[in-house]
Design goal:
Helices cover 57% and strands 13% of the residues. The chain is α/β, with parallel strands linked by helices. It has a four-stranded mixed β-sheet with strand order 5-4-6-7, with helices on both faces. The protein has a three-stranded mixed β-sheet with strand order 2-1-3.
Length: 253
């Protein structure tokens, strides 16, 4: 006789996920099938509730909008890329392990009680996922607030030059229309010149200080994605990426 597991306490409207008929509060499955079906059911149907519970508990001082943002970040991490598959498979294995251990010593499972008391390792994995997503969300929120401040500052500043060119000839250089290097250094950009700025910091600082109407970036690949994105977001629509011109050739030579 095959070993079976009786699953009791099926939520109304979700019976079919475990092979039960509408209105049935329990279902009897072979234990191997029960383990697989329950793991899939918990992840697909119950995981969002568990995640939101973790968010509301761990980030109770955040606004509802911020909590929703963390939830969206969890969904993004959990649904895209190689990491998503790794995380999904890990969570599923943790649930299946708990289910198998339980099924080895019992032939009846009350769903709500099992989820509340028997999924400690799985819930730890969910917390890790939530904390990673929250870190990502707050970094993104801080970056977006920073961009908005820069955009506002640029919009309120009168342009000092009509156009600036950005070149790379071993170093990042900002040049005016006559191709004169106007890149600013720490002494010109900071109250504390002892602080060492990166080349990309100096680039952003120079662009904001001179506030050009148009920026031509000659070539791609010498700026980080974050710096390119910042320039586009702050100075759009006045940013042009040049794929090759006489000025590019002159600077390379």
């Amino acid at each position: 006789m095959r070993e079976t597991l009786k699953i009791e306490g099926l939520p109304y409207g979700e019976e079919h996920y475990l092979g039960a008929l509408p209105g049935e509060e329990s279902v009897i499955l072979e234990k191997s099938e029960a383990v697989s079906s329950l793991a899939r059911y918990i992840i697909d149907k119950k995981e969002p509730e568990l995640i939101m519970g973790i968010i509301k508990s761990g980030y109770s001082d955040c606004s509802e909008e911020e909590q929703a943002g963390i939830m969206n970040a969890v969904s993004a991490i959990a649904s895209s890329g190689v990491r998503a598959n790794i995380c999904y498979n890990r969570r599923r294995r943790l649930i299946e392990r708990s289910l198998s251990d339980y099924a080895n010593s019992s032939d009846k499972l009350i769903l709500e009680g099992f989820m509340r008391f028997r999924l400690e390792e799985y819930k730890k994995a969910l917390k890790e996922l939530v904390y990673d997503a929250a870190d990502f969300f707050f970094v993104e929120e801080e970056y977006n607030n920073f961009i908005e401040l820069l955009r506002e500052a640029v919009s309120l500043t009168k342009s000092r030059v009509p156009m600036l060119n950005v070149f790379f000839d071993g170093n990042i250089k900002v040049c005016d229309e006559s191709l004169t290097d106007v890149t600013m250094d720490e002494k010109m950009l900071l109250d504390s010149p002892d602080y060492k700025m990166t080349e990309e910091d100096k680039l952003i600082g120079t662009l904001i200080a001179l506030c050009p109407e148009k920026i031509i970036i000659h070539g791609r690949g010498f700026l980080s994605n974050e710096t390119e994105e910042t320039i586009v977001k702050v100075f759009s629509p006045g940013v042009i990426f040049c794929s090759g011109c006489e000025n590019c050739n002159n600077k390379r030579n």
